[in-house]
Amino acid sequence: MIYSDSAMAAILLCTNLGIEGEYKPLTLKEWNGLGKTVNDMGYKIADLLKSEFTKKLPISEKQKEQIKLLTGRGFSIALKLQELENKGIYIVTQFDSDYPKYLKRKLREKMPPVLFYAGDITLAGKIGIAIVGSRDVDDAGMLFAKDLAKKATKEKLIIYSGGAKGVDSISEKAAIDGGGYVVSFIGDSLSKKIRNKDVIQNILNKRILLFSDVNPDTGFSVGRAMNRNKFIYAAAHGAFVVSSDFGKGGTWTGAVENINNSWTNLFVWSGCVKKGNKELISKGAIPYVISEQTILDTINLSLQKDIEAYRQIDMFTTGKDEIKENIKEDNIIDLYDVVKESLVQSIVGEMDANDIAQKCNIQKGQMNIWLKRLVAEGKIKRNKQMYSLPS
Amino acid sequence: MDRVYEILRESYGENAKFREGQKEAIEAVVNGKRTLVVQKTGWGKSLVYFLSAKLLKEKERDGITLIISPLLALMNNQIDSAKKLGINVKTINSDNKDEWDNIISDICDNNTVDALIISPERLANADFVKDCLDKIKNRVNLFVVDEAHCISDWGHDFRPDYRRIVKILQLLPGNVPVLATTATANDRVVNDIVAQLGENLVISRGELIRESLAIQVIKLQKKEDRLAWLAENIEKMPGSGVVYCLTKADCDLVTDWLNENNIKSEKYYADISKEYKAIILDKFQKNEIKVLVATVAFGMGYDKPDIGFVIHFQRPANIVSYYQQIGRAGRGIELAYAILLCGEEDEHINQYFINSAFPTEKDMNIVVDFITDNPGKSISEIKGALNIRANRVEKTLKYLTVGDDIYTEYVNRKKGYYKSAKKWEPDLERSEGITAIRHKEMQDMDEFTKQKGCYMKYIAEKLDDVNAKVCGKCSNCRGLLFDETVGAETVQRAQQFIKSKFGVIEPRKQFPDKTKIESEFQFKGGIVLSNYADAGYGMAVQKGKYLDGYFSDELVDASVKILSEFIKNNNIEWITPVTSKRHPQLVPDFAKRLADRLGIGYFEGIKKFNAEEQKKFENSKGQYQNANDSFEIIQVKKENILLVDDMVDSRWTFTVCAMKMREMGSGDIYPFALANTAGRGDN
């Protein structure tokens, strides 16, 4: 893996790799503040690697010293990254095109600048749902979690999860057993987790992608587990609460946080008698039971809302140079952006996917994908099999 | 940058000057640029990194320069030369463990160390990184990679440990200065290094021709001819020098031969103990021996200014190694000789090295599957579980580890292997690509030996030296330097000498599970006549076994010659053969003739009833098990017995038979084999 200068700056400044208590990495707030300062002055984050650069910044001497120490441990970082790569653990930063786009779009200043991962990173760009719930779920809850994960998997939806015992592991297993995929933001040590035979097997089979927002050697803590809830919600297109205590516990806290921040639509299993479930519904969560309706249709309602977030300018991208750099790093071209206006123009009256595909001379499968996106963006509308322009 | 002159003059006097390019390279490094220096040995690459280290230290008091260099000899050599510049350089290596703590404290607490040299093997060692490097890693402000051609896949010298360095270089943030140095890099290697270190690399590249060297190539097919040539010509060479061989066995042979001819010689290869190596090098340094007979294990960076000659007993694998090896001669003297002897076995041995450079795909698949299914197993557990030769398991593990396919980790104090989260796919394209290059390099070397034009010019051109020119010194420029023929009498003596060499069979003292074999059940030290497929008797054994189905009288004669004393000294009264299912008469027939000639009794005491061939089993556990299951003792004698077999490899057949015979009350067992097939061919 080769990291760009800005990615390297994020790794040096925001992780505790290779530090043994002498000094600390920047907090998320400090990092965002520094990024803003650097941008406002017309520089880029990568400039932080240049010697003497910090001298130019209007920040405290103490912080200058901290940045100097953090960026000065380059050899140490190289050793550490090499050790991690040896285990198949890599890093994706907010500056990389592989960074989970929904996290970036929805969390913005709350997004983790650096994520450690093991597994197929492209899974993180796929649409899916979160299934959350307490560790001590009852049998009915287990069954619901399992059925929901199976149903989602059949619809080719990813399961976003937290890798904990109980609901998390039940839904993860159901998805994998059903031939599906899982993205898991874990709350304990990533290094430890991948030593497990089944876990590594699932990673090698590209069934599961594990994320850790902290040093892979760091173990479980309540604070960390709470903090990661937001990643699970933000990554998902719809989150489903299986069972929640009221007023306490990770599920409750995470669900309420999601309601307050509107990261994604919250569905709560109404078959669960727990007080937490009822209270979440009264706070505006959507009651849910498994029915004939596809999950895709259920969550589709919420897709529109995300669009605003997609358009937000990502952080650290105000300077001219930075834009250039971003183009270089964002080497994935979304052809959709190139063709979408032509597609819209090609639709006359009511046409089905076949007609439009023929008219544009491309495969129907690809046309279906693009049409779906056009519908999601509200550029065209769909009525059964027929597409037309919005009136 | 005036300070750089100040330091130079403080150490080397008022008139000291830099060589062309030195000052520029130092400036680049100190200004944080990544720099590659390609200059011939003796140009003064170490001056560049030592002065850079010193200047950086003056700039940043807490900093330290970390130098990766592959050779210990080089380290001590260099540390002395650094002292002259007032630079405190330390080395941490496997030989000075007791000093590690002090050195680290000098670096971290006392801040008195300017540069630290470690070997690539150390850097690749996870334990070392944890125990040692972790403590100083935050201080490293210059990273120097010596012999940087090794970081290129296309470099002639594939070393797994350098792949780790490549990784570190790639992962090194742009704000860490890097200095890479090498004496040998053609355009392809330079381009590869640029790819690793980044486009902004500053390159310092000088001419490679060594003006003091006179090259001659002499074709002598037979080993005995080349031995004879050495005996007749070495005394005509100036000072002391090096004879390079491709294998350890040849080093042994040449050293003994030269000493027999009253030419003082010592051998140097990987297996020689550290202490003895130091003694040998010291003798060599002081010219107390005429010849150092060495494999490639001797070399890189070793600095002796008055080496008068480098002779190759066999053809090296490629031009770059050849250039490096001859480049050790004539550094501080006007004229030195580089004589390349080529013979019939060159191609075969070089092929063997090329083909065994990478673990096989099959071995890799087996190892990866095992580790994936059994995470956390130790190296000995893995060796025990797989039917693969132990040294091949080690090689495969190492290769897979540097490729990030597996890794080791201490869990509950046990060091175990785990499958990494990276999908396993054998990188055949890479290994096949490299193998193809090796073959091409071999062809170039072959072409070199057939040159009609200047030898040195050919080398310089192959190294993409833009200043390549005719040397005026080699045998193609100037006519023969040494006679190319040898005297018949010397050749005959050499032939006899090769045939008189035989090896010892040491008893096994442990079972595969490491429990002890009681000494009364072990066999006694025995004899093996030859190395399989080697010149001398090896070929005759091969022919006897696979072509004739009969071991010739020549082999009986040779065996009698080395055994008659042996059986007398050890009171051996009986001979018994190890029998085989596939060739039931071969060994018994030979043993019977041997017994007749030696005048001792013959009996058949061992029956083989399992048809599995021992050579199908690759590791100790399997070999022991199979041997143990295969042989039944039907008769023993209470006197001492010579146990005869054709080949010896793992020694488990001898071990098991001896044990079973001893249990039945036989006398002492002394093994004898015609050829040794064990672990041939590395350095």
Automatic annotation (TrEMBL), chain A:
Source superkingdom: Bacteria
Alphabetical list of Pfam families matching this protein: DNA_processg_A
All residue ranges annotated as the Smf/DprA SLOG domain in the record: 91-296
GO biological process per UniProt: DNA-mediated transformation
Similarity field: Belongs to the DprA/Smf family.
Protein name (record): DNA-processing protein DprA
Organism: Lachnoanaerobaculum orale
Automatic annotation (TrEMBL), chain B:
Keywords: ATP-binding, DNA-binding, Helicase, Hydrolase, Isomerase, Nucleotide-binding
PROSITE patterns: HELICASE_ATP_BIND_1, HELICASE_CTER
InterPro entries: DEAD/DEAH_box_helicase_dom (IPR011545), DNA_helicase_ATP-dep_RecQ (IPR004589), Helicase_ATP-bd (IPR014001), Helicase_C-like (IPR001650), P-loop_NTPase (IPR027417), PRTase-like (IPR029057), PRTase_dom (IPR000836)
EC number: 5.6.2.4
CDD domains, A to Z: PRTases_typeI (cd06223)
Gene Ontology molecular function: 3'-5' DNA helicase activity; ATP binding; DNA binding; four-way junction helicase activity; hydrolase activity
Domain Helicase ATP-binding residues, every copy: 26-203
Ranges of residues in domain Helicase C-terminal: 226-379
SMART domains with a match to the protein in the record: DEXDc, HELICc
One record GO biological process: DNA repair
GO cellular component, one term: bacterial nucleoid
Catalytic activities: Couples ATP hydrolysis with the unwinding of duplex DNA by translocating in the 3'-5' direction
PANTHER family: ATP-DEPENDENT DNA HELICASE Q1, DNA HELICASE RECQ FAMILY MEMBER
Family statement: Belongs to the helicase family. RecQ subfamily.
Name listed for the protein in its UniProt record: DNA 3'-5' helicase
Source organism per UniProt: Lachnoanaerobaculum orale
